[in-house]
Design goal:
The complex is a heterodimer of chains A (639) and B (227). Chain A has a seven-stranded mixed β-sheet, with helices on both faces. In chain A, strands 7-9 form a two-stranded antiparallel sheet. Chain A folds into two domains: 1-263, Rossmann fold, CATH 3.40.50.300; 278-638, no CATH class. Chain A has 639 residues and is α/β, with parallel strands linked by helices. Chain A has helices at 17-25, 69-81, 96-107, 119-125, 130-137, 152-160, 175-187, 197-206, 209-212, 217-234, 238-257, 267-274, 278-315, 318-326, 328-366, 369-382, 390-396, 400-406, 413-426, 430-444, 446-470, 490-524, 527-532, 536-542, 549-555, 562-571, 582-594, 599-638, and strands spanning 5-11, 30-33, 40-48, 51-57, 85-91, 112-117, 126-128, 141-143, 258-260, 479-481. The termini of chain A are far apart. In chain A, 65% of the residues lie in helices and 8% in strands. In chain B, 42% of the residues lie in helices and 19% in strands. Chain B has helices at 4-17, 25-32, 36-49, 64-88, 92-102, 108-117, 167-175, 209-212, and strands at 52-55, 59-62, 146-147, 155-162, 183-189, 196-200, 203-207, 215-222. In chain B, the strands form two sheets. In chain B, strands 3-8-4-5-6-7 form a six-stranded antiparallel β-sheet. Chain B has a two-stranded antiparallel sheet with strand order 1-2. The chains are: A alpha/beta (639), B alpha+beta (227). The interface between A and B is large, with 58 and 45 residues. Strand 10 (479-481) of chain A pairs antiparallel with strand 7 of chain B, so a sheet runs across the interface.
């Protein structure tokens, strides 16, 4: 058995790299977080004629200068794994930026293969002389259509065939840079990196932190001196010139190998354009977003009712006998705790999270999400948030757990934490919506529901304003590529959904289990009922609710919509209007809509931000919700 | 790096081929004042390097890369001649000789700046045309550039430079392909202070105005709608 080959996939975002990867590796892929970062990368295997090829998919990067966290991780992974071969995945319809990336891989001395993806679209627009391009770059070039699998056999073949002689292609930088490179190369005596000196020095000059750390102080000082002189002389940083020369070179090559086919804009391109124009882009976006919301709330809750009924039918009697088998209060607690956990999964994970992830994957793969971000960026900036935060907020109307995870699209941890806080506090998730609709919605009418939503919206605006003015959080400006719209691929959508649901499961399941047991124990040993009196200052005094609602509020920690079910159980009637006034329901729904993250949201906050910040957010959301509830109660009693 | 000798030959062939192609080896040996045998030997070398196509008895023609080097060296020669003659005030003969040496060592950047300084001259002192810059010549025109954020919708331009003190931000801009010399079209400006919608070659990018103000562009008219 041969030693497995190591192959890295690298490419810009939106070139179809993940499709290439999943088509190559099938179901063997596992996703990992690069240690100490939220950057994820995938690993998988393919076996070709007995040769095991291990493929790792680097995060999508625009360059290798180490400017973003993704680029840093890509640089480090490339260096640490020492791949036998690097495959640069390019979008054949816009070759230039991918060539610039390929130049840098070649410069670093890797055995490079260029995969020209999306050739089906490219063939309608341009001609590419693949052989000539391969001759110029001195590397194998493989045209491919990843979604149909075209060219991928050729890629595997090329990877596992004996390597050609290394490429001698070089970007010719302007004479000052070339002279500098020559000088530095000759002065570099102690050198241990596996890269050609030229490539490594270029990365040093570009200021890639990974490489600057690899040179000794003396040499680094020399390079910095050269860079300083360059800046003095040209009035611009050396990296600007380097990249100018790279793009110049790429443009020159393209003018040699690419020919344009005269044509009209295709229908897909025209639709892609229209979705970006304020008109009709913005109305269309409102339709799409409303559709998503309706999907999450109505399909979600319908599915929940159905599944819970099925679940109850299937397990009827099982937990009773389990409780009996173990015996005593403890037995009842364990059986009920287990029952509650299972039911949470049936009631939340499947209807809300699964449906939500499906919708999200479809929106992502169609290339529509960036359009929402772009169209709303101006408005969101005014609110002190960035356009990118709209996605987590939409996600939050389904469930806070994926919403918090999706804040990863934002740059800094700080911005992520701020947005997560707003989502937990003020964006009503599917379960909270159920409570709002099931209490004041059912008995008080639309006016009350609208009032609650208006309060929540005001809360979002207020917290955005607050963060903006008191925490001096400047939203980061937008800089994103706009992909063309595409028809989502079913297998890719399902793949993504599966992986995300699995991730959620791993995080939430243990927490749900523990919380359920604890709550059940408290209930069965009478602790819950003992809490009713001591907390009546809060429930009766502050909020004007029946004292017994404290139990419903406590169970809301586990699952928000359970507090509604518990109200029914506690009062012994499904007709809530006989035991609570509409005003009381209003206060109750308002508190539930703003208060404490549920156990699952708490656990994902904990995973993403650590205990300290999670605790802060939890405490403040409890405080704020009771405050708002108290004020509402006060105002309603005056009126 | 191409040697000076090779650059000399390519420059010579370029000049001769302005009259007729293919260029005879005899013409080259006459002009360069070297033996026909060494010209033949050199032509074979240049052909191997891919700068010329050489057929015995017929002569040589420049390939695209050969033509590019030839043009560049010639351009620098004539540009420097002009510079030394016009600005420094050397004699014609001296400026020619000096330009002969400088044509090989001048950096792209100096060339661009001299070109800009002299307002993009079209001819050398003898009246021979100065070949147009192969990289975008608009850079030489001394019109002021504007921040991208001030370019109106539907207009295009070439990036001249980036203006940014924050290295991290500048790297991000560079990584997205905002690099001097590239063409940018402002397709739309989204309302409420939203981002600019740009197309850079085949790529569409949404760029916040704060970033757009860091990219300086020399406007060059309306975007072409052709694909």
């Amino acid at each position: 058995m041969n030693k497995p080959m190591q192959v890295a996939l690298i490419g810009h975002p939106n070139v179809g790299k993940s499709v290439v990867f999943s088509k190559l590796t099938g179901v063997t892929a596992i996703s990992s977080n690069y240690p100490g970062t939220t950057v994820e990368y995938l690993e998988g295997k393919v076996v070709h004629e007995g040769q095991v090829i291990e493929i790792f998919d680097l995060p999508g990067t625009y360059g290798l200068s180490g400017a973003s966290e993704d680029e840093k991780v890509a640089t480090r992974l490339l260096a640490e794994r020492e791949p036998d071969c690097v495959v640069v995945v390019a979008d054949a319809t816009r070759l230039e930026p991918s060539l610039v990336l390929a130049f840098q891989i070649i410069e670093l001395g890797y055995r490079t293969i260029l995969l020209l993806n999306q050739m089906d679209v490219a063939r309608k627009r341009i001609t590419i002389d693949v052989e000539q391009l391969s001759g110029i770059l001195g590397i194998p070039i493989i045209p491919s259509v990843a979604i149909s699998g075209e060219g991928l056999d050729g890629l595997v073949e090329s990877i596992s065939s004996p390597p050609r002689k290394p490429s001698t292609f070089k970007v010719r930088y302007d004479s000052h840079i070339e002279a500098m490179l020559e000088k530095l190369t000759s002065e570099l005596t102690t050198y241990e990196l596996p890269h050609p000196k030229r490539g490594a020095i270029l990365k040093l000059l570009e200021g890639n932190e990974f490489f600057t750390a690899k040179f000794d102080d003396e040499f680094r000082a020399k390079a910095e001196n050269e860079m300083y002189e360059f800046r003095q002389e040209h009035g611009e940083d050396i990296e600007v010139h380097m990249n100018r020369d790279r793009y110049g070179e790429a443009g020159k090559i393209i003018s040699e190998v690419v020919g344009k086919i005269p044509r009209q804009l295709s229908r897909r391109e025209r639709i892609s354009e229209l979705t970006l124009k304020p008109w009709p882009g913005i109305p269309l976006m409102l339709v799409v977003l409303t559709g998503v919301f309706i999907c999450l709330v109505f399909i979600g809750s319908a599915l929940e009712t159905f599944l819970v009924a099925q679940y109850a039918g299937l397990t009827a009697g099982f937990f009773d006998s389990l409780a009996h088998a173990i015996g005593g209060q403890l037995g009842a607690s364990i059986a009920n705790g287990l029952n509650l956990t299972m039911m949470s999964i049936v009631a939340i994970v499947i209807p809300y999270i699964l449906v939500f992830y499906l919708v999200l994957a479809i929106l992502e793969d169609s290339g529509y999400l960036p359009r929402v971000v772009i169209l709303l960026d101006g408005l969101m900036q005014k609110l002190g948030l960035s356009g990118r935060s709209i996605i987590p907020m939409i996600v939050g109307t389904g469930c806070n757990v994926p919403a918090i995870l999706s804040t990863r699209v934002l740059g800094s941890r700080r911005e992520r934490l701020i947005l997560s806080t707003i989502i937990i506090l003020a964006v009503p998730c599917g379960a909270q919506t159920v409570v709002i609709l099931g209490t004041v919605g059912a008995y008080g009418g639309l006016i009350y529901v609208a009032a609650i939503y208006a309060i929540l919206l005001a809360l979002i605006l207020l917290s955005g304003w607050f963060m903006h003015h008191f925490m001096r959080s400047e939203p980061i400006g937008l800089m994103i590529e706009v992909p063309e719209l595409a028809v989502p691929q079913l297998d890719n959508v399902l793949d993504k959904t599966y992986n995300r649901v699995k991730d959620f499961f791993v995080i939430a399941f243990p927490i749900l289990l523990v919380t359920s047991f604890v709550l059940e124990l408290l209930m069965n040993f009478g602790v819950m009922n003992a809490l009713v009196e001591p907390f009546s200052w809060l429930t009766v005094g502050l909020l004007g609710l029946p004292a017994i609602t404290i139990i419903a509020l406590l169970f809301g920690i586990l699952r928000k919509e359970m507090s509604l079910q518990l109200l029914v159980v506690l009062f012994g009637t499904a007709d809530l209007i006989t035991v609570m006034t509409v005003d009381q329901m209003f206060v109750f729904a308002l508190v539930i809509a703003t208060y404490i993250p549920c156990a699952s949201a708490f656990s994902v906050m904990f995973k993403e931000f650590g205990l300290k910040d999670t605790a802060k957010v939890t405490v403040s959301s409890i405080a704020i919700s009771f405050l708002i509830g108290g004020v509402a109660n006060l105002l309603l009693s005056i009126v | 790096m191409v040697s000076e000798n090779i650059e000399e030959y390519l420059e010579c062939i370029w000049e001769l081929s302005q009259r007729s192609t293919p260029v005879k080896t005899k013409e080259i040996s006459d002009k360069m004042k070297v033996s026909p045998a060494s010209v033949t030997e050199m032509m074979q070398r240049l052909a191997e390097m891919g700068y010329v196509q050489y057929e015995k008895y017929k002569g040589v023609t420049l390939t695209q890369s050969g033509n590019e080097i030839g043009t560049r060296v010639k351009r620098r020669h004539r540009l420097m001649e002009r510079f030394l003659y016009d600005i420094i005030g050397l004699e014609k003969k001296e400026s020619h000789e000096e330009a002969c040496r400088m044509e090989h060592t001048l950096s792209d950047e100096s060339e661009r700046r001299i070109c800009q300084l002299m307002n993009n001259p079209k001819t050398c002192p003898d009246g021979d045309p100065i070949p147009e810059c192969s990289h975008s010549c608009t850079l030489c025109v001394s019109e002021p550039s504007l921040p991208l954020s001030e370019i109106p919708k539907g207009e295009t331009g070439v990036i001249t430079h980036l203006k940014c003190d924050d290295t991290a931000k500048m790297r991000r801009i560079i990584a997205m392909g905002f690099v001097p010399g590239r063409n940018i079209c402002v397709e739309d400006r989204l309302p409420m202070g939203g981002p600019l919608l740009l197309s850079v070659q085949e790529t569409k990018i949404a760029l916040a105005r704060e970033y757009a103000s860091m990219v300086h562009v020399l406007p060059s008219g309306k975007c072409s709608k052709a694909v």
